[in-house]
Amino acid sequence: MLLNAIKLSLENMNRKFTDLSKLEFDEIDKTFRKKLIEQKIQERPFAYEFYHQFRKMWDSGSIVSIVSDEVVIQAEVNKRYQEIPECKKMPDFLLHKPDTTENFAVIEFKLASNYKQLKGDFKKLIKFRQKLDYTFLIEVVIGKDSELTTAINHINRLKTSNGEEIIVICFNTEIWKANDFKIKYDYNVVR
Q1: Does residue 185 sit in helix, strand or coil?
Q2: Within a domain: 40
Q3: 0.70 cut: is pTM over it?
Q4: Which distant-in-sequence residues (6+ apart) come within 8 Å of 114 by Cβ?
């Protein structure tokens, strides 16, 4: 049910709040400008628009039936004080009951074009399960069909037969649809 709410929130996003500005500035480095033109989206505005859509569902009462009404979704919460000092970067979103040890889901966003960084995200997700007992570990991968294919191939090379379960949601920006699959991942296995 939570997975469906996340996918629906992704699909309900308004494109105009996720696309980069089409303006070009002369002072931008040519290589960087080319990458921006090709990419058209960035992680941060995408995650913020997801948060907005998820909160709209939350406020309508759709999410509360999935989790306790005391659970909240928060962005980039610093959890270092809870025994994860090696996590220098915070997860994009946490669903948890504040001031308790009741932790529901940790969600990371990654552009498919940055697929080489997924290994680090997976390690971070697993640390949140191992140290803080989060129930669901979710990685949202965003991109065009060809980028998602490359990212999925990379993920398939990372998966292991044992380890922690991670839910991967691939959001295709060409057809504006989300699909999901699960993998097992153990960051102690050398790949």
Answers
A1: strand
A2: yes
A3: yes
A4: 43
C-alpha to C-alpha distance for 81 and 15, rounded to whole angstroms:
36
Nearest in space to 171 (alpha carbons), one of 13, 37, 1: 13
Structural contact between residues 31 and 11, judged by C-beta atoms closer than 8 angstroms: no
Total structural domains within the chain: 1
Q: DSSP letters of 102-168? A: -EEEEEEEEEGGGGGGHHHHHHHHHHHHHHH--SEEEEEEEE-HHHHHHHHHHHHHH--SSSEEEEE
Structural domain boundaries enclosing 21: 2-185
Read off the pLDDT of residues 69-118 as tens digits, 9 standing for 90 and up. 778 888 876 655 555 656 666 889 999 888 888 889 999 999 999 999 99
Contact 138, 105 (CB under 8 A): yes
Alpha carbon distance 30, 92 (integer Å) = 30
Q: Is residue 80 part of a domain?
A: yes
Please give the structure tokens belonging to residue 125: 């997700």
DSSP character string of 64-85: TTTS-TT-EEEES---GGGT-T
Structure tokens at 175: 């057809």
CB 107 within 8 A of CB 6: yes
